[in-house]
Amino acid sequence: MTPQTGSRNPARTPAHTPAHTPASAGASAGASAGALPPARTRDADAMAVTAFVLGLVGLLVMNLFLGPTAVVLGALALRRNTTRPGRARLGIALGLADLVVLACLVTADGTWSWSLT
Fold it and tell me: What angle (nearest 5°) sits at the alpha carbon of residue 16, between those of residues 10 and 17?
């Protein structure tokens, strides 16, 4: 093949290889800044997911503790620029819903917990 018809030059092939291929991923994972998100972003993502889970569980049990915790974790995740802002906002909303459910329980029968009787 001639250079005009697309012959391959072995010396130029690695320069055109994408950075995410298995052959080059191990060698460049630590060298490139964009390979892994910073630790702060990973922590913020974990906070967003934790806020969501705590807010969801808090609807059923321990509203007094899990609701405010979900709100705080969701707000911290948003402040730290999480890549999951929707999950953080849902955690905040569910945490606030936990507090509303708690307020309804307290006003309905004066209890701080669920009761079936």
Answer: 95
